[in-house]
Amino acid sequence: MQETERRSTAHGLAFLCLLSFVTSFVAARVFATLNPTMVVESQGIHFHHFWYGLAMITIAGWLGIAHNNRRYVRLYSVIFGLGGGLVGDEIGLLLTFGNYNSSLTFFFAVIVVALGSMGILTFRYKKQIEYDVIYLEGGERAIYFGLVVAGLSALAFATDRLPVGALILLLGVLVGGAGQYWRRRRTER
Beta-carbon neighbour count of residue 68 at 10 Å? Predict the structure, then answer.
């Protein structure tokens, strides 16, 4: 039996993006708080994790434009949100040109933008968000969870913990791959 194709709603995608943003932001903030002296430096250049975030935002945006396929819009939304969280974590650094621990980061990025927007979306578009977030089938949930885990491996790579980053990335790929396998098996029935 062929499964009917699910179409995402703009409001559900925005909620997924913000949920990914908050997840990535919190993970980056916790990691940086627990490892305050850890930096990646190569040839005198300090690589902040906002560069990884900008790469993710750029890739997701480009794919959303160049490969506009509705089967992947949730994927693009999650990648975009993960990248936004990495950039958002360093808002204070970017706004003050050097103060990573600026209170602007937490207040602006999390409380005002992310949580406020998620609350408004949930209140106004509850049914669409339920459709795009809550009622996903198990395989699809595993794919997105694997993507989030794989995306968060950027934190380990950014701090030059290559074995840990590779392990986290592998775990994310395995979970996402299992979800894809589960999803294919279900649609073949």
Answer: 10
46 by DSSP, 3-state: which?
Answer: strand
CA dist., res. 25 & res. 148, Å (int)? 12
Question: How many residues are present in the chain?
Answer: 189
Contacts 24+ apart (CB under 8 A), 96-104: 100/32
In DSSP terms, which residues pair with 6 in a beta bridge?
none
Phi, psi angle pair for 26, to nearest 5°: -65, -45
pTM value is 0.57
Strand, helix or coil for residue 112: helix
Phi, psi of 112 (to 5 degrees): -75, -55
Contact 102, 93 (CB under 8 A): yes
Share above pLDDT 70 across residues of the chain, in percent, rounded to a whole number = 77
Q: Comparing 147 with 132, which gets the higher pLDDT?
A: 147
What is the Rg, in whole angstroms, of the alpha carbon atoms belonging to the chain? 17
Alpha carbon distance 142, 122 (integer Å): 23
Instruction: List alpha helices for the chain, DSSP H.
Output: 10-34, 50-66, 73-89, 91-96, 103-104, 116-124, 126-129, 138-158, 162-188
